[in-house]
Write a structure and sequence with these properties.
The chain is mainly alpha-helical. The chain contains three helices and two strands, in the order ααββα. It has a two-stranded antiparallel sheet with strand order 1-2. A hairpin with a 4-residue loop joins strand 1 and strand 2. It is elongated and about 45 Å long.
């Protein structure tokens, strides 16, 4: 039933040009909160996130865990 409701909402939004119940901004925020919670659990302590700067406050170890680390030969593209 969940998929049926999701598809119906998406099709309705295409017709009405309204935002869906679960738009990309909501999904991105939920994913970010999940990542931050995982980092806190991995470090086994509280962490403080500065959303404006997209960094943990005064926490080098947590900031390292928030970065993507690529294995050779993969690299982060430079824009």
């Amino acid at each position: 039933k969940g998929l049926k409701n999701h598809v119906a909402n998406m099709l309705d939004c295409i017709k009405t040009r309204q935002l869906p119940n679960a738009d990309i901004a909501i999904g991105a925020r939920v994913a970010k909160m999940s990542h931050l919670a995982n980092i806190s659990c991995r470090l086994q302590r509280e962490v403080v996130w500065d959303d404006a700067k997209s960094r943990f406050v005064g926490d080098k170890e947590a900031n390292q865990l928030a970065k993507a680390h690529y294995r050779n030969p993969w690299k982060l593209p430079k824009v």
